[in-house]
Amino acid sequence: MRQIPLPIMNTRNSPEPEVEKEAMNKEQAEIDETSCDVLVIGGGPAGATVAPLLAERGYRVVVLEKAHHPRFHIGESLLPANMPLFDRLGVGDHIRAIGMEKWGAEFVSPWHEHTQMFEFGDAWDKSQPMAYQVRRSEFDEILIRNAERKGATVFEGCKATAVDFLSNREGAVVTAERDDGETLRWRARFVVDASGRDTFLASRMQIKQRNPKHNSAAVYGHFRDVQRKAGQVEGNISIFWFDHGWFWFIPLVDGVTSVGMVTWPYHMKSRGERSLSAFLNDNIQQCPALAARMVDAVLVSDVEATGNYAYSADRTHGDNYVLLGDAYAFIDPVFSSGVLLAMQSGLLAAEAIDQCLTNPARAPAALRRFDKMMRLGPREFSWFIYRVTNPTMRDLFMGPRNILRVREALLSLLAGDIFGKTPIWPSLWMLKLIYYVSSLRHLRRSLKAWKARRDLVRAPS
Ligand SMILES: Cc1cc2nc3c(=O)[nH]c(=O)nc-3n(C[C@H](O)[C@H](O)[C@H](O)COP(=O)(O)OP(=O)(O)OC[C@H]3O[C@@H](n4cnc5c(N)ncnc54)[C@H](O)[C@@H]3O)c2cc1C
User: By alpha-carbon position, which residue is closest to atom 3 of ligand 1?
Assistant: First the structure.
């Protein structure tokens, strides 16, 4: 890739003497040589979904990824609604080869005597009974190589550093820096920000807002010799509630289990001088049901922490850019929705960008549709996320009844089946009504829980 000079916005619209015009045309020609239709910042699940879908349609797509695949990433539990997306991308067999089958989710509560297993096969739509747990290093590499195979040009070790939008909706110039310090520039008709929690555009445009209703942090690691269940349920995710939040327990295919604590920021502050692994271990001991499954556990990775998270950008798009996946919004991972939302946003973006580039008259409508669907996922999952540590919601999860198919609707949500035509919405509204009525019946407990949560959500000073 040849290095090219930045076009200067003002000169492009002003009358130029012939010599300068000639120089500009030369510069323009140079720029055209390295131009592309769509430039994607970030080669995670969102970027590696939109890129091949557009490349297949004949667009010149460039993906910039600051890391080199395979690289570590947290977020290992997938949902049944991911499966049709894998088939759509043509990677179903590759994912099957690296995935641990996940047929459901188990909820374990210290306040209840039984555990509750949800099986995706009992959801409203019985045709998507399973998903996978994956090592993200392997999973993300499959997706990015697929993007390359389908015709996208992928630059790894290449970090986007600036995006200059051109006047008259003519696209943008994207500047990037390679690992070796070389600066590269592309002129793109459309820019996709799929930079994950780096939130490249939202941060620069100052449109990223912390979610005032939620605030949590995570500490996690990989363990061997953890006691798993036998048979088909071995790969199910388990969620263990404890006094300070909840734990995930995600069995991976090679005998390693991913265990992570999601907790309130105030609790993170109680870590003091302890190492992250000591802090994680001490908290596991505070959750007896989990501790019992980890008596012989051996830590086989570094323990990592992710700070306060839960945010969204004020908007999902502009005339010639979109924000996808975590680059648009991040919600608590309790329902394993992140990768699905990222990939789904890639699918939606491919449709919208195609319209914008081929049929500008239809662009506003296409972007409005994109916007509506982008907001749907975070909104629907968040209603449950805000309440998942609430005693009334815990009771509903631990003793779900199927009045008016509310249990099936809940399972469909847990399976990520919210973007299609499955008619779950009236039953989900009924479930919410049941929640509000139950909260009223236990008014004192509800008020206490609501006040406690309000205090916990506040960021510690
Ligand atoms: C603690 C925790 C647990 C989670 N658990 C789950 C789970 O179990 N299941 C689930 O589905 N989701 C989970 N998630 C969420 C999930 O990890 C994300 O939602 C998902 O990875 C989002 O995909 P993405 O493509 O939007 O972003 P990412 O996967 O983060 O990909 C973004 C890519 O952009 C690259 N990048 C960033 N900046 C630049 C730049 N300037 N130039 C070039 N490249 C750049 C990064 O290197 C990265 O590869 C979890 C998240 C956390 C924090």
Answer: 75
